[in-house]
């Protein structure tokens, strides 16, 4: 495994990491900051699982800014192939070279020449391995959307920070990338992937953390309005209300809702404005329909 590169941007301790993340607008719970700190120090990938919208992807973006490392993103999807994650050959350039050299070189010489790095199109995994110190932040986003063969392909990278290219051999990281994998748990990941990673579950934030996030992201909103937003969304996610929805709003929806309410010059939440903007909190017709009859209950003062 490659040696860790000393950098002035690497946090000295968990408190320093928490402060640095807050400085770029990401309010992390201490358990999450501890997991990230250990991922940096131990040079281990970090697997983040949780409901959509709880801040998994945003954490990678925040760490890129905090650590001053380039962010590389691999968005996973069903049917993803290795060449889309690692590399592929520039076949057009190879063909042009072969045509130009066919009268002056032997077939063996041509074959050696066309499989050189200058004909390699680097995808996120290979880019991450070849990023100079202090290395990159690699986000492997929604890995649960890819299939099991793709998970098996990732094992060499996750375990050893290296990949094998048949024509070139084994390529090892110049500096260990900080690798963040995210999963919405649409399916269970292979145990072999999990064993190679540190793990952290991200839940919806409590009211105080959500309040800090909304205030930081939407400073134009009044203190009273942000308090109402945080209280309303917290109650949406709690029983008995949460049972009525297919998916509760995430942090992203809270922030977008706050921006929309500010754009509408809203001073205080009322049933009419909630009904008119319900499509920001929920993306399913059934969830919007379930919300409408319970708006008054959700706005009722806490006992």
Give the secondary structure arrangement, pairings included:
Layout: H1 14-23, H2 30-42, E1 46-50, H3 56-67, E2 71-75, H4 82-85, E3 87-89, H5 91-101, H6 107-114, E4 120-122, H7 124-129, E5 137-141, H8 148-160, E6 162-165, E7 169-172, E8 178-183, H9 191-195, E9 198-202, H10 207-217, H11 223-237, H12 251-263, H13 271-276, H14 278-281, H15 285-291, H16 295-299
Parallel strand pairs: 1-8, 1-9, 2-5, 5-8
Antiparallel strand pairs: 3-4, 6-7
Question: Outline of this structure?
Answer:
The chain has 303 residues and is of the alpha/beta class.
CATH class of the largest domain: Alpha Beta
Strand order of the largest sheet: 2-5-8-1-9
Strand content: 5-15%
How many domain regions? 3
Mean pLDDT: 91
CATH superfamily annotation of the largest domain: P-loop containing nucleotide triphosphate hydrolases
Counting helices, strands and paired strands, the structural category is alpha/beta
Write the H/E string, N to C. Answer: HHEHEHEHHEHEHEEEHEHHHHHHH
Uncertain runs are 2-8
Overall 3D form? elongated
CA distance, first residue to last residue: 56 Å
If helices are DSSP runs of H or I spanning 4 or more residues, what is the number of helices?
Answer: 16
Under CATH, the topology of the largest domain can be stated as Rossmann fold
Largest sheet: 5 strands, parallel
Total beta strand runs: 9
Helix content: 40-55%
- CATH architecture identity of the largest domain: 3-Layer(aba) Sandwich
Report Rg.
Answer: 24 Å
Protein name: ATPase
Keywords: Hydrolase
EC number: 3.6.1.3
InterPro entries: AAA+_ATPase (IPR003593), ATPase_dyneun-rel_AAA (IPR011704), CbbQ/NirQ/NorQ/GpvN (IPR050764), P-loop_NTPase (IPR027417)
């Amino acid at each position: 495994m490659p040696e860790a590169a000393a950098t002035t941007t690497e946090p000295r301790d968990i408190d320093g990491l928490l402060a640095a993340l807050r400085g770029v607008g990401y309010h992390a719970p201490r358990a999450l900051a501890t997991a990230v700190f250990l991922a940096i120090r131990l040079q281990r990938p970090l697997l983040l699982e949780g409901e959509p919208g709880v801040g998994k992807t945003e954490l990678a973006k925040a760490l890129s800014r905090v650590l001053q490392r380039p962010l590389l993103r691999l968005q996973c999807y069903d049917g993803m192939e290795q060449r889309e994650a690692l590399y592929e050959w520039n076949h057009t350039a190879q063909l042009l070279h072969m045509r130009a050299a066919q009268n002056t070189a032997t077939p063996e010489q041509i074959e050696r020449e066309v499989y050189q790095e200058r004909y390699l199109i680097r995808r996120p995994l290979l880019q991450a391995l070849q990023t100079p110190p202090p290395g990159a932040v690699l986000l492997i986003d929604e890995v649960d959307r890819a299939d099991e063969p793709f998970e098996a392909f990732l094992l060499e990278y996750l375990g050893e920070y290296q990949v094998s290219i048949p024509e070139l051999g084994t390529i090892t990281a110049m500096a260990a990338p900080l690798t963040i994998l995210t999963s919405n748990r649409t399916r269970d990941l292979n145990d072999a992937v999990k064993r190679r990673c540190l793990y952290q579950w991200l839940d919806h934030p409590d009211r105080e953390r959500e309040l800090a996030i909304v205030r930081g992201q939407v400073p134009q909103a009044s203190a009273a309005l942000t308090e109402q937003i945080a209280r309303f969304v917290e109650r949406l996610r709690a029983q008995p209300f949460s049972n009525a929805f297919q998916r509760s709003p995430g942090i992203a929806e809270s922030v977008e809702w706050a921006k929309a309410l500010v754009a509408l010059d809203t001073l205080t939440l009322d049933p009419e404005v909630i009904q008119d903007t319900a499509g920001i909190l929920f993306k399913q017709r059934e969830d919007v329909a379930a919300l409408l009859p319970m708006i008054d209950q959700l706005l009722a003062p806490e006992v």
